[in-house]
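Q: What would this chain look like folded?
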Amino acid sequence: MYKRKIQSTIKKNLTNNSNKTLIIEGARQIGKSYIIRHEGKSCFKNFIEINMLEDSHGERLFAEVKSTTDFYLKLSTVAGEKLGNRENTLVFIDEIQAYPELLTLLKFLTDENKFKYIVSGSLLGITLRKTLSIPGGRIQIVDMYQLDFEEFLWANGVGESAIEHLKAQFLSEQSLDESMHNVFLDFFKKYLLVGGLPDAVKAYLETHNIVNVRNIQNEVHRLYKEDASQYDNENSLVIRKIYDLIPSYMENRKKRVFYQDFEGKRWKRSSDYMEEFEYLTNSGIAIEVHAVSNPHFPMLESMQKNLVKLYLNDVGILTSLLYHNNIKPILDDEKCINLGSVYESVVASELKAHGFNPSYYDNKTNGEVDFLIDDYSTLSTVPMEIKSGKDYSTHRALDKFLANPDYNIKKAYVLYNGREVKQAKGITYLPIYYIMFFSPCSNENLIF
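A: My prediction, written as structure tokens:
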């Protein structure tokens, strides 16, 4: 089993007698069920798992549940003698979005305290919006993602001491020595190929065969498109079209989406595709990054809804679509291949998985900066440029951005594939693998 960061959150909820039901939300095939199953069985004598998506396509045993009494009766037909009490029985409701009414019922199931519950699902943002009564105060929703780069290192057997050394170097803004740099840059490049889908990581570790890895990534990519086709008859074709266009947008110079491409209608605007974008982001299969032209903290106040970039949720799926079974563009730094979109995509997914809501800077006069993140410790905006080639010191848009005193910029970063950490003209240059340590400032320990 691969160690996952979310394990501590699950274990804490299951063992601290919490009066909230934990809901793990995220895209399909990222390991939600597996990790819940592992932690649940280790904490409870009786572990009962019900997949509501399978039930909705099969017996529909839970389709007409209207009360807790109905639920207990149906549960007893599945669980048999496994049903005990709150202290020794965990009920895992998987893919709860198949029956949205069960989200309302969760409040009453939790209040009655008959058993302990844990839930997983996809599209919960949409499902909750359509639910008449949300069990406020009784649920805790936590987002889960595919393995991030640090979890990928764990899966590859990299020890905690090595990662702690790397983190100490990052925090002190120091470079690794040449040999350590080469090791971690090699791992990073392999992560670009493999990505973080657990089955793809497993195939890589067991076979080191790119064809096996790509087959899994292609299957998941098809699954995501099939899920979109089943979402809504009116919108499904447009959702698939947008999803299919993401890699091509990433290869364009500006990288943002163009709404007229979706249906060939030049008058269409972002407001015409709100539901489609909501599906892509709430299902977890795409990451939405909005433009900001006036980058003052907090950026939420100045986001432009009509200018947006979309990234695939997994960099391995992207490199599979771009390069198929050819590993040379990633591993050999082919001069004719621009890896800018790949590097941007992995940074977007890392930032999202670490709790950021990244934006990007778009200004007709000054140009674009790849990412902006809020820094809660300095109450300022942090610009980031991502460079995959040797021209990492060329960044005119970032230079103009920093030259504006109204933006109150305290720090800025360029992430690149070189070894040295260095500072110049208000910019800190970091090796690309240091992205694994970026995290929002936590104010949990402040007393006021």
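DSSP finds 18 helices and 13 strands in the chain.
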